Amino acid sequence: MNYIVVDLEWNQSPYGKEAEIKEIPFEIIEIGAVKLNENKEVISSFSRLIRPQVYNDIHSITKEIIHIEISDLVEEETFEYVIKEFFVWCGEDYRFATWGNMDLIELQRNIDYYGLEGYIDKPIPFYDVQKLFALDYFKDRKPRTLEFAVDKVNILKDEEFHRAYVDAKYTADIFKLLDQNIVDRNYSIDYYHNPKTKAEEIHLHYETYYKFISREFESKELIMANKDINSVICHKCNQRITRKIKWFTTNSKTYYSLGYCKKHGYIKAKIRIKKAVNNNVFAVKVVKIITEEDAQLLALRYLEAKKRKKEKRIRISNK
Ligand SMILES: [Zn+2]
Q: What is the pTM of this model?
């Protein structure tokens, strides 16, 4: 299997938010990528500019950051053309690696905008090099800039950042240096195309937590009533837990619950309700062992949420 380390540059509405096209707030104007073999040796590279079709001028911030003018792009091919070339270049057996999780999302949003099919149509595993770098070098998950990482590992900064190919190359340089054990154990899943069936649902077992991405439902009530989703087991020993606090919500998009495993202590479960493209919803559930202190904080949040709910009820009945 090869690795495709990819980076995109995009433009946004030059006339402000009001003139933004909702379906494509970020129009891709450059794709840069490096292909690595299994031993993470560079075997090929890809670099193309793209003629914009949505926004006919470059946003001033974009100009400043990436130093591209609209006149640099007018002679280039369109997104439809370049993306076809790109996926042919990617080949058959590969996984994407990117700095952060934004590039794959915007790539798919642009593909969707033009109604192109046959490229990415389901959840895909990928390597978030920004996350992996944080785990490997700092044992945390804090997002840091690509330049910070390049400095940290002492890579020669011979080319300016913020052009797609250069950023892809730097990302590949960092990716190569990462502990392979950490890389293998902490791959990510892009779920821009969320699971559609039970068989497509995603179960990710990481060292410190378990993540689950459900199929679609018509409402969040149906999600929260579903036994597969609302039940929680300890992700370390797969044993049933004692429920300490039942599911509660602070903003009706995120639900929490607290349980206790005899062997592993307090277990926090969190469900985020996400909107699918067609107005259906799906759940992202994370189950994690937490400290007693964090369990107490969660209990406080539960009490606050309960109080707010009660106040709201009183307000309504007083109307
Ligand atoms: Zn346990």
A: 0.86
Q: What's the gap in Å between 267 CA and the centre of ligand 1?
A: 9
Torsion of CA 126, 97, 114, 11, to 10 degrees: 130
- The tally of domains found in the chain comes to 2
pLDDT recorded at residue 319: 63
What's the 241 CA to ligand 1 centre distance in angstroms?
Answer: 8
Answer yes or no: do 177 and 215 share one domain.
no
Mark whether 36 and 172 lie in a shared domain: yes
Query: How far, in Å, is the centroid of ligand 1 from the Cα of 141?
Result: 24
Residue 316 has pLDDT above 80, yes or no: no
Domain boundary among 189, 211, 233: 189
Q: Are residue 39 and residue 159 in the same domain, yes or no?
A: yes
286-288-294 Cα angle (round to 5):
120
Ligand 1 centroid to Cα of residue 234, in Å, is: 5
Most confident of 11-15, 60-64, 85-89: 85-89
Whole-number pLDDT of residue 264: 96
Domain end, chosen from 189, 221, 252, is at 189
Q: What is the pLDDT of residues 111-139, one digit of tens each?
A: 999 999 999 988 999 999 999 999 999 99
State which residues form the domain around 115: 2-189
Residues 158 and 235 in one domain: no
Q: Please tell me whether residues 210 and 125 are part of one structural domain.
A: no
Instruction: Give the H or E element holding residue 222.
Output: helix 220-225
The per-residue pLDDT of the chain, averaged, comes to 94
- Exposed e or buried b per residue across 211-234, where buried means at least 16 C-beta atoms within 10 angstroms of its C-beta: bbbbbbbeebeebbeeeebbebbb
